Amino acid sequence: MSLSSSTRTSSQGTRGAGRTAGSGPHRLPSSRERRPALAALAVILILLGAAGSALIAVNSGNRSDFVAIAADKIEPGHKLDRKDLARGDLAGATGGLIPWSEAEKYIGQYTTTWLYKDQFLTKANLSAQKPIPKGGALVGVSLEGGRAPSDGIDVGDVVQVIRVPTANQDTTAATILVTAAEVTASAGAITDAKTNANTTLNVTVLVPTEKATAVAAAAAAKTLVLVKLSPATKPEVSRTDGAG
Protein backbone atom coordinates (compact mmCIF):
# COMPACT_ATOMS: atom_id res chain seq x y z
CA MET A 1 0.00 0.00 0.00
CA SER A 2 2.79 2.26 0.80
CA LEU A 3 4.34 1.70 -2.61
CA SER A 4 1.12 2.43 -4.44
CA SER A 5 0.59 5.69 -2.63
CA SER A 6 4.08 6.83 -3.37
CA THR A 7 3.69 6.10 -7.05
CA ARG A 8 0.50 8.14 -7.35
CA THR A 9 1.99 11.07 -5.61
CA SER A 10 5.01 11.06 -7.88
CA SER A 11 2.88 10.81 -11.03
CA GLN A 12 0.67 13.70 -9.99
CA GLY A 13 3.69 15.78 -9.22
CA THR A 14 5.12 15.10 -12.65
CA ARG A 15 1.93 16.12 -14.39
CA GLY A 16 1.73 19.25 -12.33
CA ALA A 17 5.30 20.09 -13.13
CA GLY A 18 4.64 19.52 -16.83
CA ARG A 19 1.72 21.91 -16.83
CA THR A 20 3.70 24.53 -15.03
CA ALA A 21 6.63 24.31 -17.42
CA GLY A 22 4.57 24.37 -20.62
CA SER A 23 1.98 26.93 -19.66
CA GLY A 24 4.28 29.99 -19.88
CA PRO A 25 4.71 30.54 -23.70
CA HIS A 26 1.05 29.79 -24.55
CA ARG A 27 -0.67 31.83 -21.87
CA LEU A 28 -3.08 34.52 -23.26
CA PRO A 29 -2.81 38.02 -21.77
CA SER A 30 -5.41 38.75 -19.17
CA SER A 31 -8.00 41.50 -19.60
CA ARG A 32 -6.13 43.56 -17.03
CA GLU A 33 -2.94 43.35 -19.15
CA ARG A 34 -4.77 44.38 -22.37
CA ARG A 35 -6.25 47.56 -20.94
CA PRO A 36 -3.13 49.79 -21.20
CA ALA A 37 -2.64 48.88 -24.90
CA LEU A 38 -6.27 49.64 -25.75
CA ALA A 39 -6.07 52.92 -23.88
CA ALA A 40 -2.93 53.93 -25.81
CA LEU A 41 -4.61 53.07 -29.13
CA ALA A 42 -7.64 55.15 -28.20
CA VAL A 43 -5.40 58.12 -27.37
CA ILE A 44 -3.63 57.82 -30.75
CA LEU A 45 -6.95 57.74 -32.64
CA ILE A 46 -8.19 60.78 -30.74
CA LEU A 47 -5.01 62.69 -31.54
CA LEU A 48 -5.25 61.78 -35.26
CA GLY A 49 -8.86 62.92 -35.39
CA ALA A 50 -7.98 66.20 -33.71
CA ALA A 51 -5.10 66.77 -36.14
CA GLY A 52 -7.39 66.12 -39.12
CA SER A 53 -10.00 68.52 -37.81
CA ALA A 54 -7.35 71.16 -37.23
CA LEU A 55 -6.04 70.74 -40.79
CA ILE A 56 -9.53 71.15 -42.25
CA ALA A 57 -10.08 74.25 -40.14
CA VAL A 58 -6.77 75.75 -41.23
CA ASN A 59 -7.47 75.09 -44.93
CA SER A 60 -10.98 76.51 -44.72
CA GLY A 61 -9.55 79.60 -43.09
CA ASN A 62 -7.00 80.11 -45.90
CA ARG A 63 -9.52 80.57 -48.71
CA SER A 64 -8.62 83.17 -51.36
CA ASP A 65 -10.62 85.06 -53.99
CA PHE A 66 -10.18 84.23 -57.68
CA VAL A 67 -11.73 85.29 -61.00
CA ALA A 68 -14.72 83.16 -62.05
CA ILE A 69 -17.29 83.36 -64.85
CA ALA A 70 -20.60 85.11 -64.14
CA ALA A 71 -22.29 84.48 -67.53
CA ASP A 72 -24.02 81.18 -68.30
CA LYS A 73 -21.51 80.46 -71.08
CA ILE A 74 -18.96 82.35 -73.18
CA GLU A 75 -17.78 81.25 -76.61
CA PRO A 76 -14.17 81.31 -77.88
CA GLY A 77 -13.14 84.70 -79.31
CA HIS A 78 -15.32 86.69 -76.91
CA LYS A 79 -13.89 90.00 -75.71
CA LEU A 80 -13.94 89.84 -71.93
CA ASP A 81 -16.05 92.48 -70.18
CA ARG A 82 -16.43 93.37 -66.51
CA LYS A 83 -19.96 91.98 -66.41
CA ASP A 84 -18.64 88.57 -67.52
CA LEU A 85 -16.67 88.10 -64.30
CA ALA A 86 -17.53 87.10 -60.76
CA ARG A 87 -15.56 86.64 -57.56
CA GLY A 88 -15.17 83.10 -56.28
CA ASP A 89 -13.32 81.85 -53.20
CA LEU A 90 -11.34 78.64 -53.10
CA ALA A 91 -8.90 76.84 -50.82
CA GLY A 92 -6.31 74.18 -51.49
CA ALA A 93 -4.41 73.75 -54.77
CA THR A 94 -5.12 76.96 -56.71
CA GLY A 95 -2.04 77.20 -58.92
CA GLY A 96 -2.72 78.85 -62.28
CA LEU A 97 -5.94 80.58 -61.26
CA ILE A 98 -6.20 84.35 -61.70
CA PRO A 99 -6.46 86.21 -58.36
CA TRP A 100 -9.44 88.53 -58.09
CA SER A 101 -7.07 91.40 -57.32
CA GLU A 102 -5.69 91.06 -60.90
CA ALA A 103 -9.06 90.90 -62.67
CA GLU A 104 -8.73 94.35 -64.26
CA LYS A 105 -5.57 93.28 -66.12
CA TYR A 106 -7.58 90.79 -68.19
CA ILE A 107 -10.57 92.95 -69.12
CA GLY A 108 -10.53 93.34 -72.93
CA GLN A 109 -8.68 90.09 -73.62
CA TYR A 110 -10.20 87.33 -75.73
CA THR A 111 -11.34 83.90 -74.66
CA THR A 112 -9.62 80.92 -76.27
CA THR A 113 -12.07 78.21 -75.16
CA TRP A 114 -15.69 77.76 -74.12
CA LEU A 115 -16.24 78.99 -70.56
CA TYR A 116 -19.18 78.28 -68.26
CA LYS A 117 -20.81 79.82 -65.20
CA ASP A 118 -18.78 79.55 -61.96
CA GLN A 119 -15.74 78.20 -63.82
CA PHE A 120 -12.48 79.67 -62.50
CA LEU A 121 -10.30 81.45 -65.07
CA THR A 122 -6.67 80.66 -65.88
CA LYS A 123 -4.29 82.60 -68.11
CA ALA A 124 -4.52 79.79 -70.66
CA ASN A 125 -8.22 80.64 -71.15
CA LEU A 126 -7.35 84.12 -72.45
CA SER A 127 -5.31 85.82 -75.16
CA ALA A 128 -4.44 89.47 -75.73
CA GLN A 129 -4.68 88.89 -79.49
CA LYS A 130 -7.94 88.51 -81.37
CA PRO A 131 -8.28 84.91 -82.55
CA ILE A 132 -8.76 84.06 -86.20
CA PRO A 133 -12.48 83.36 -86.59
CA LYS A 134 -13.79 80.14 -88.00
CA GLY A 135 -13.81 80.26 -91.80
CA GLY A 136 -11.18 83.01 -91.93
CA ALA A 137 -7.50 83.25 -92.89
CA LEU A 138 -4.88 85.96 -92.53
CA VAL A 139 -2.87 86.88 -95.63
CA GLY A 140 0.08 89.26 -95.77
CA VAL A 141 0.31 91.73 -98.65
CA SER A 142 3.17 94.06 -99.66
CA LEU A 143 2.03 97.13 -101.61
CA GLU A 144 3.96 99.74 -103.55
CA GLY A 145 2.84 103.08 -104.96
CA GLY A 146 -0.39 102.93 -106.90
CA ARG A 147 -1.50 99.75 -105.12
CA ALA A 148 -3.18 101.41 -102.13
CA PRO A 149 -4.33 104.91 -101.05
CA SER A 150 -1.42 107.27 -100.49
CA ASP A 151 -2.65 108.19 -97.00
CA GLY A 152 -2.14 104.59 -95.98
CA ILE A 153 -4.24 101.79 -94.61
CA ASP A 154 -4.71 101.31 -90.89
CA VAL A 155 -5.74 98.46 -88.62
CA GLY A 156 -9.52 98.14 -88.63
CA ASP A 157 -9.96 99.55 -92.12
CA VAL A 158 -12.16 97.61 -94.55
CA VAL A 159 -10.72 97.15 -98.04
CA GLN A 160 -11.66 95.55 -101.31
CA VAL A 161 -9.04 93.12 -102.61
CA ILE A 162 -8.63 93.31 -106.40
CA ARG A 163 -6.35 91.40 -108.73
CA VAL A 164 -5.21 93.50 -111.68
CA PRO A 165 -3.61 92.29 -114.91
CA THR A 166 0.13 92.54 -115.42
CA ALA A 167 1.70 94.75 -118.09
CA ASN A 168 1.47 91.99 -120.70
CA GLN A 169 -2.16 91.19 -119.83
CA ASP A 170 -3.83 94.44 -120.81
CA THR A 171 -6.79 92.62 -122.31
CA THR A 172 -7.52 90.82 -119.02
CA ALA A 173 -10.11 92.46 -116.77
CA ALA A 174 -9.45 93.17 -113.12
CA THR A 175 -10.99 90.65 -110.72
CA ILE A 176 -12.45 91.30 -107.30
CA LEU A 177 -11.06 88.55 -105.09
CA VAL A 178 -12.62 89.73 -101.80
CA THR A 179 -15.50 92.19 -101.73
CA ALA A 180 -14.70 93.45 -98.24
CA ALA A 181 -11.80 92.39 -96.02
CA GLU A 182 -10.78 93.64 -92.59
CA VAL A 183 -7.21 94.90 -92.11
CA THR A 184 -5.71 93.37 -88.96
CA ALA A 185 -2.15 94.72 -89.16
CA SER A 186 -0.35 97.51 -90.97
CA ALA A 187 3.28 98.65 -91.11
CA GLY A 188 5.20 101.02 -93.35
CA ALA A 189 3.78 103.45 -95.87
CA ILE A 190 3.37 103.92 -99.62
CA THR A 191 5.45 107.12 -99.44
CA ASP A 192 8.07 108.14 -96.93
CA ALA A 193 6.73 111.16 -95.02
CA LYS A 194 10.14 112.88 -94.86
CA THR A 195 11.67 112.20 -98.28
CA ASN A 196 8.52 111.50 -100.35
CA ALA A 197 10.35 108.48 -101.71
CA ASN A 198 8.31 105.45 -102.65
CA THR A 199 8.41 102.75 -99.99
CA THR A 200 6.44 99.63 -99.19
CA LEU A 201 3.24 99.25 -97.20
CA ASN A 202 2.80 95.87 -95.53
CA VAL A 203 -0.67 94.88 -94.39
CA THR A 204 -2.45 91.76 -93.21
CA VAL A 205 -6.01 91.16 -94.33
CA LEU A 206 -8.61 88.75 -92.99
CA VAL A 207 -10.22 86.88 -95.88
CA PRO A 208 -12.48 83.83 -96.25
CA THR A 209 -10.52 80.58 -96.15
CA GLU A 210 -11.64 79.54 -99.64
CA LYS A 211 -10.27 82.80 -101.10
CA ALA A 212 -6.95 82.81 -99.23
CA THR A 213 -5.02 80.89 -101.90
CA ALA A 214 -6.00 83.25 -104.70
CA VAL A 215 -5.18 86.32 -102.58
CA ALA A 216 -1.81 84.88 -101.51
CA ALA A 217 -0.90 84.00 -105.12
CA ALA A 218 -1.79 87.49 -106.37
CA ALA A 219 0.15 89.04 -103.48
CA ALA A 220 3.22 87.00 -104.39
CA ALA A 221 2.86 88.04 -108.05
CA LYS A 222 2.45 91.68 -106.94
CA THR A 223 -0.82 92.02 -108.83
CA LEU A 224 -2.97 93.07 -105.88
CA VAL A 225 -4.61 96.43 -105.28
CA LEU A 226 -6.41 97.37 -102.07
CA VAL A 227 -9.27 99.85 -102.23
CA LYS A 228 -10.35 101.41 -98.93
CA LEU A 229 -14.09 101.19 -98.28
CA SER A 230 -16.46 102.93 -95.88
CA PRO A 231 -15.99 101.93 -92.22
CA ALA A 232 -19.67 100.96 -92.22
CA THR A 233 -19.01 98.21 -94.77
CA LYS A 234 -19.42 94.75 -93.32
CA PRO A 235 -16.42 92.47 -94.02
CA GLU A 236 -16.99 89.00 -95.46
CA VAL A 237 -15.24 87.63 -92.37
CA SER A 238 -14.90 89.64 -89.18
CA ARG A 239 -13.30 89.04 -85.84
CA THR A 240 -15.74 89.06 -82.97
CA ASP A 241 -15.68 92.19 -80.85
CA GLY A 242 -17.38 90.51 -77.91
CA ALA A 243 -20.51 92.63 -78.18
CA GLY A 244 -22.74 89.58 -78.35
Summarize the biggest pleated sheet.
5 strands, antiparallel
Rg from alpha-carbon coordinates: 42 Å
Proportion in β-strands:
25-35%
Cα end-to-end separation:
121 Å
* Overall SS class: alpha+beta
What is the averaged pLDDT score? 79
Q: How would you sum up the global shape? A: rod-shaped
Strand order of the largest sheet: 7-10-9-8-11
Q: What proportion of the residues is helical, as a percent range?
A: 25-40%
Extended strand count: 11
DSSP summary: helix tally: 3
Outline of the structure:
With 244 residues, the protein is an alpha+beta fold.
Structure commentary:
This protein has 244 residues and is α+β, with helices and mostly antiparallel strands. Helix content is 25%, strand content 25%. The strands form four sheets. The chain has a five-stranded antiparallel beta sheet with strand order 7-10-9-8-11, with helices on one face. A two-stranded antiparallel ribbon has the order 1-3. Strands 2-5 form a two-stranded antiparallel ribbon. It is rod-shaped and about 110 Å long. The termini are far apart. The relative contact order is 0.13. The model is unreliable at 1-18 and 20-24 (pLDDT under 50).
Provide the fold topology.
Layout: H1 2-22, H2 31-61, E1 64-69, E2 73-74, E3 85-90, E4 110-111, E5 115-116, E6 126-127, E7 136-143, E8 158-163, E9 175-188, E10 201-208, H3 212-220, E11 224-228
Antiparallel strand pairs: 1-3, 2-5, 4-6, 7-10, 8-9, 8-11, 9-10
